[in-house]
Amino acid sequence: MVYVTRLEHFNAAHRLFNPAWSKEQNEQAFGKCANENWHGHNYELYVTVKGNPDPDTGFLFDARQLGALIREKVTDKLDHKNLNLDVDFMRDKMCSSENLSIEIWKQLSPHLPSGVSLHCIKLYETPRIYIEYFGE
Amino acid sequence: MVYVTRLEHFNAAHRLFNPAWSKEQNEQAFGKCANENWHGHNYELYVTVKGNPDPDTGFLFDARQLGALIREKVTDKLDHKNLNLDVDFMRDKMCSSENLSIEIWKQLSPHLPSGVSLHCIKLYETPRIYIEYFGE
Amino acid sequence: MVYVTRLEHFNAAHRLFNPAWSKEQNEQAFGKCANENWHGHNYELYVTVKGNPDPDTGFLFDARQLGALIREKVTDKLDHKNLNLDVDFMRDKMCSSENLSIEIWKQLSPHLPSGVSLHCIKLYETPRIYIEYFGE
Amino acid sequence: MVYVTRLEHFNAAHRLFNPAWSKEQNEQAFGKCANENWHGHNYELYVTVKGNPDPDTGFLFDARQLGALIREKVTDKLDHKNLNLDVDFMRDKMCSSENLSIEIWKQLSPHLPSGVSLHCIKLYETPRIYIEYFGE
Amino acid sequence: MVYVTRLEHFNAAHRLFNPAWSKEQNEQAFGKCANENWHGHNYELYVTVKGNPDPDTGFLFDARQLGALIREKVTDKLDHKNLNLDVDFMRDKMCSSENLSIEIWKQLSPHLPSGVSLHCIKLYETPRIYIEYFGE
Amino acid sequence: MVYVTRLEHFNAAHRLFNPAWSKEQNEQAFGKCANENWHGHNYELYVTVKGNPDPDTGFLFDARQLGALIREKVTDKLDHKNLNLDVDFMRDKMCSSENLSIEIWKQLSPHLPSGVSLHCIKLYETPRIYIEYFGE
């Protein structure tokens, strides 16, 4: 079994706030991340799939096709968007990178070809903070 | 003469649009960067100063002090902010990285100590796009 | 379960030598790393914690708090220090990155909040050499 | 148990094509990677070994020795070479990074010292695509 | 005046050899870079343009358009190609990164819009070697 | 005219202190950088040379030869050393990166071949601080 990882990226605005809380509670919990006028990031998304290489091609899953799938199902829906307002699969969810990683997994995993399974979503919010999710 | 460069960063939301234009004109000129719900970036800011090292310290300008000055005068005002809405020195300006670099120069240059002059503002909007401004 | 990783760094001097050995034995085992006048590195420290996100915040552990904890318990004690001479928790230990990673684990693991457990200490000694320790 | 990783690199030409297929089939499967005049990459190779540190040295395996072993057994045979034509251990194999990672594992694993075992071969073909192989 | 830089990349094979020389002379001058079966690189190309921002857009030259121009005129002709065999503008030239940078300048400079001039071609052959050319 | 840049690196210990000053003055001026037990860095050294490419090779100066020259004249004398104690050309000088860059220039510039001149010494002390020196 081999693991193939592909990097894609997207630039987005977001805001951390809990609508059930007061403005003061949100500022206490999230600090400057609660700014009501939003802030944003260049997100770097590493998607890892696993399985056995095809003997005819030597590929587990052509990295160009993997990149196209990530863009179609995930990053085209996130790039230059507001994660709180513009993204169907983040609606009514706390817009943390933890939750975003879990939702990206759900968007991608049903669309992988037979013999290829999703192993890890790794999402850099900044060069110094990243989240990993392995599906459970 | 030596050149000393210090990297600081900030995460911010912004939007590209010209208020004198229609929505269609803005979308034609700026594409997805005109999204009315904003998007954002992890900006990386390299500030370069130049001058002669002090014989007593070997320093042109202590990098810790240069970092503190950049944070006080520039990045504390930009980090986790909306560049179009929250930043005094960007008010009524097109919020491109070109213009942001020029305004950052204006914020920093009056505050450098004697014998140290500002040489370059280099601003990465993404890892693949950056602006340089040399003051004229 | 999600994994959250935070990067912090420190700059330190160290030396590899076994006090039970002769100078020749140390030079044979450690080469230029045994230089009696020390050498040093910019260490990059990635700390990974794991657990379930809090439904109210979407966070496993706020990355700003994780960074503050790492600095308080670990990197403030290592930064701009001599690892052999200045660091309580490295006293009488061979000052390899392997041993340093294990000791960093011991410094951090008792201080994580309920529901958050330490998963990995990853320590870059140079951009081309790193150590990982998973606690056992 | 600790894990030690060493980065080495090599620059090589290669081509993806299946000799049992027609030119059209190869172009359909591999696109521009099938160019009969070859293309190439700067490969980055991360080799991870695991085991317990030696109490006398604090080392699992001296990173300088690990680097020398990787160069002798692997990268000296790949650097500035054509992976399809010049490399004994890739002969008659599809020249994908998946297969190359598996073969690199086979070249290295018999040569590690007692108490040190190979954990992972991680091979970057480009900064945006990498393969991992864990030996089974 | 501001400077805007855009990064694009291409992966290519090449070989260094002078057809007027014997095999021995080529091997003496170019070492393993003369391998008759080729080798290759992931080239990183930074293109810098300069001029005054447009008051209506805040842009000197939209980075998306600059990227599209670089791909059309340069990297689409180089990516997954053999630089010695497949590239019109390198025919009968020594295939060094020095010469490649000069030829890339010639391909791009006639196609920049009014008010925008080419400032620098910076070409990384590996992460440790790069060439800059400023047009004269 | 083209510019060729080569990256080399070295790991060293150093300390900032002025022997004409009291301990208190040194701590006030240099803070934790004055630690009497030293600290250290992974220095990254970019050396840029300029000139016209040789028509027979396409090279200004073979990057392998440039690397060998930098190692022989500079980095072999600095790597795994104490910059204050072990380095002839830093004796009796304040051990700042500013002064180190100037001395590296002096070590290298007399040894370049005819037609190749030194353009810039760029020295990263950390990934966030670097010095440039152009020879005057």
Description:
The structure is a homohexamer of 136-residue chains. By secondary structure, chain A is an alpha+beta fold. The first copy, chain A, has a single domain (2-133), classed as 6-pyruvoyl tetrahydropterin synthase/QueD (Tetrahydropterin Synthase, Chain A, 2-Layer Sandwich). Chain A is 26% helix and 32% strand. Chain A is built from three helices and five strands; from the N terminus they run E-H-E-H-E-H-E-E. The first copy, chain A, has helices at residues 23-30, 63-78, 97-108, and strands at 2-14, 39-51, 81-82, 117-126, 129-133. Chains in contact: A-B, A-C, A-D, B-E, B-F, C-D, C-F, D-E, E-F. Chains A and D meet through strand 1 and helix 2 of A and helix 3 and strand 5 of D. Strand 5 (129-133) of chain A pairs antiparallel with strand 1 of chain C.
Ends apart, CA distance between termini of chain A: 20 Å
Strand order across the biggest sheet of chain A?
3-1-2-4-5
Helical run tally of chain A: 3
Measured as a percent range, the helix fraction of chain A is: 25-40%
Q: Mind telling me the CATH superfamily name of chain A?
A: 6-pyruvoyl tetrahydropterin synthase/QueD
Q: What's the total number of strands of chain A?
A: 5
Oligomer: homohexamer
User: How much is the radius of gyration of chain A in Å?
Assistant: 17 Å
Content of β-strand of chain A: 25-35%
Chain pair forming the biggest interface: A-B, 22 and 22 residues
Shape of chain A: elongated
Main sheet: strands, sense, barrel of chain A: 5 strands, mixed
Give, in order, the helices and strands of chain A: EHEHEHEE
CATH topology of chain A: Tetrahydropterin Synthase, Chain A
